[in-house]
Amino acid sequence: MPEPTKKEENEVPTPAPPPEEPSKEKEARTTPAKDEEEVSPPSALPPGLGSRALERKDSEWSLGESPAGEEQDKQNANSQVSVLFVEKPQGGTVKVGENITFIAKVKAEDLLRKPTVKWFKGKWMDLASKAGKHLQLKETFERQTRMYTFEMQIIKAKENYAGNYRCEVTYKDKFDTCSFDLEVHESTGTTPSIDIRSAFKRSGEGQEDAGELDFSGLLKRREVKQQEEEPEVDVWELLKNANPSEYEKIAFQYGITDLRGMLKRLKRMRRVEKKSAAFAKILDPAYQVDKGGRVRFVVELADPKLEVKWFKNGQEIRPSTKYIFEHKGCQRIMFINNCQMTDDSEYYVTAGDEKCSTELFVREPPIMVTKQLEDTTAYCGERVELECEVSEDDANVKWFKNGEEIIPGPKSRYRIRVEGKKHILVIEGATKADSAEYSAMTTGGQSSCKLSVDLKPLKILTPLTDQTVNLGKEICLKCEISENITGKWTKNGLPVQESDRLKVVHKGRIHKLVIANALTEDEGDYVFAPDAYSVTLPAKVHVIDPPKIILDGLDADNTVTVIAGSKLRLEIPISGEPPPKAIWSRADKAIMEGSGRIRAESYPDSSTLVIDVAERDDSGVYHINLKNEAGEAHASIKIKVVDLPDPPVAPNVTEVGDDWCIMNWEPPAYDGGSPILGYFIERKKKQSSRWMRLNFDLCKETTFEPKKMIEGVAYEVRIFAVNAIGISKPSMPSKPFVPLAVTSPPTLLAVDSVTDTTVTMKWRPPDQIGAAGLDGYVLEYCFEGKPPKIRIPRHLKQTYIRRVGEAVNLVIPFQGKPRPELTWKKDGADIDKNQINIRNSETDTIIFIRKAERSHSGKYDLQVKVEKFTESASIDIQIVDRPGPPQTVKIEDVWGENVALSWTPPKDDGNAAITGYTIQKADKKSMEWFTVIEHYHRTNATITELVIGNEYYFRVFSENMCGLSEDATMTKESAVIAKDGKIYKNPVYEDFDFSEAPMFTQPLVNTYAIAGYNATLNCSVRGNPKPKITWMKNKVAIVDDPRYRMFSNQGVCTLEIRKPSPYDGGTYCCKAVNDLGTVEIECKLEVKVIYQGVNTPGQPVFLEGQQQLLHNKDF
């Protein structure tokens, strides 16, 4: 291999010559003095610096590294006293294909846990990630000696394994490091002057075909030889003259990866060497050589007897096949054969006590693109790979898109994959935006190609299908297309908005629209449109609901009551989708819609039965049947027509007295459809036409006893029946009757004689004979024994009332033979004879209470029993007392000469209703009480005409039928009547805070509209300050749209939609905002279209709160 030509400092740099054939290299080795050329230094940096010449030498896997390749700082580190290492790994030499092991030991006596050990090649390459087929790391621990042993074994070494290695050990805050070198030689001896390997290229390191020869290297070298030599470029001159912002660009173009290290080394090169007494000619400041080439260092001694030593990075260089030393007079020459990147370092030579140094730059050959990029066509979503090949493994290649560098990252769709010499740009999920010109740039060239990304032909694998879904069920629209792309769903031309009930699912090539709990507003035309394609997938969703009849507003037995003669409008809410058809019937006869007295009316959400003038015959069971495509429903409703009852039949007078009679009657034959509540009784004199009502409270029984009639005057009575509807017509009058006093019983009745068949009796006339005179006598006889009968006195047939402390003495006569058995009970329990005395005789029983108490009040039951016959009667006794005082009395207000009082009723009413209150006043000075109001029925009063300047107290008594309460309740505070001239101070009131956050008092309601006819949406809102109203449609504010008009009057907000079309349907929102908050309310508007008088999709519906029917003819 010829050596690089020596250049003068001002000489224009020329590129290094191409490598020659092995035969020529051998010839050059035999005649070094003649053919070898010296390398002269540039002004500051050797020209034509290779792409790896300026990299850190200990960060590369290179061939032919010298055994003394450590840097000065590593030498100093190894010379320090070890902190943790007991035994450090030592440098070594190994032949290609052989194994070598490096050992480091650490003492564990002072360590509580295992230390951390790392192996590096160069400065930064961690070998833990390289462990595998050719590199193994091992750790052991000897318990007896307490020694950790760490081993690194290199298996089947290769030339590029040579270099500088480092071992680091760490424990807590302690740290120790050690550097060592590995030199790899060929396994077979070769002549040093002939390096046939430099003409060959080896395939990827660490692969199965590692070590195989690649003859394309020879061809390339021959081709390069045939080419004209291009002038070398002095990179240093470029950097020195260039703007600092262009350093990075120049470094990449000429393969400089350690720009910062290069500048440091050049800074050291600028130092001016002092004149030396030992050297007549010193080393040049710098030398450069191509990788695999040969370089010659020459110094000239002033004294040829001086001993010369050569050093590399501070370590002495020994003669070997790589390093050859020659002596020519005063010249001392060192040749370095087969230069590799590890030879790129500082060299110096010593002669006596003096030395001179230089820098050697090893330049890699430029990286060439051996396989160009090819134009590629792909479809969207596919994975695209752009591939090229370069001349060296793991070369630095930059990718560009339309001239801009591609920087891959975690979130980028671009990935760069390197497989030896192959460099591949991977684009995941290509899109149309990826269509561009791509280029790959190396230090020796570039390659470009065009990428065209088109849409893949879309195939519909599973189209959407029309669906008919029951209300409340799930709607699932599913389609499958050939590509995994996104798309958009629309309903009736409007985008579908996701919610808790509506979900859009995209999984691979499958797209789903899932609607949980289907509603009627979910019905419509749905379309799925894949993004970037003009294809659409339509489907119609029809939501149906089986008809339902809602009878919540009726009774449990579905009965409707109507008064005869009035109008019945029975509106039954119904539901169903589509709106069901309703049919009313009675007794298997259909009730038609029309204008008859009994007719049916149908609406979308209700069905109505109308009876204009209800009659008795209209009572009965009516049937309603609903039917739509989802099913049928049936219900029965009972209609009951109620009327005034028929008049009762004429009453019968069964018994008369001096001023009374007993009458009875039968209930009317027809009660009007409503139970009889009672009866009213009227009477009149036979010769008079004026009827007088005898009772003002309804008589519940069919027996009544008129009183206070004039004896000897003929009377007639009649009856009125009463039910919930009203009072019937009067009955026919009874037969005339005359009240007459009954004569007293005959006296001195005695038996005169008795025979076998006769009894002779004698008596005296009665003591009292009424106005009717005595017509005769009636004789009766009976056998021994008589059924019991109780004769309750007239005054005991009503509640018997006595005051506390009064005596109660009641005599109740009865009949019965033999002597009956009597039983008294009070409120269902036996009477306590210690409190109530009972005395019985053969003809009557007496109940006696000496001093009545309120506890004696109650219902007393008397039972008379004769053998198997019994008779019962009841008496109500009420013992009353004076009430207690009112609970509290308050002065509510005082103004002028008036005082307003209020009080609460007494807790104890004395077992009788409170009939009124008595109010008294007293001047505070005298405290003498005067009555102001008596028998006052309310619980508040205003006392007037009070004396100005006085101060008054007030008290209130309660009153019932027994009189006033014993005590009175007095006001706790007094009322002061202000004098004239006194200034009245107005009370101070704090300003009321009228501020209020917005609140809707009347919400928006879901509404239907007819296309072409104006529609309005109304709601009411309140708030202070006055809120700002904003209307939105589908979450988009309505601003300056002539199709909409917005009004706000006294808090009523109105949105008018002028002649809406189906596209105006959607969700409308009214938003109110003020300083205290924001509130929104929404509603849905559906616009229906009418074609040639047919309403689509259903009949017109009532807007909420309206009652009107829209007929097709109106449109």
What does this entry show, briefly?
One of its GO terms (biological process) is cell adhesion. This protein has 1115 residues and is mainly beta.
Describe the structure.
- This protein has seven helices and 82 strands.
- Mean pLDDT is 81; it is low at 1-80, 189-230 and 1092-1115.
- It is mostly beta strands and 1115 residues long.
- It has nine domains: 85-185, Immunoglobulin-like (Sandwich), CATH 2.60.40.10; 274-365, Immunoglobulin-like (Sandwich), CATH 2.60.40.10; 369-454, Immunoglobulin-like (Sandwich), CATH 2.60.40; 460-513 and 522-533, Immunoglobulin-like, CATH 2.60.40; 548-642, Immunoglobulins (Immunoglobulin-like); 654-723, Immunoglobulin-like; 787-879, Sandwich (Immunoglobulin-like), CATH 2.60.40; 888-977, Immunoglobulins (Immunoglobulin-like, Sandwich), CATH 2.60.40.10; and more.
- Strands 31, 33, 34, 37, 38, 40, 43 and 44 form an eight-stranded mixed beta sheet that branches. Strands 66, 67, 69, 70, 71 and 72 form a six-stranded antiparallel beta sheet that branches. Strands 74, 76, 77, 80, 81 and 82 form a six-stranded mixed beta sheet that branches.
- Residues 40-51 have a biased composition (Low complexity).
- Keywords: Actin-binding, Cell adhesion, Disulfide bond, Immunoglobulin domain, Muscle protein, Phosphoprotein, Repeat, Thick filament.
- Pfam families: fn3, I-set, ig, THB.
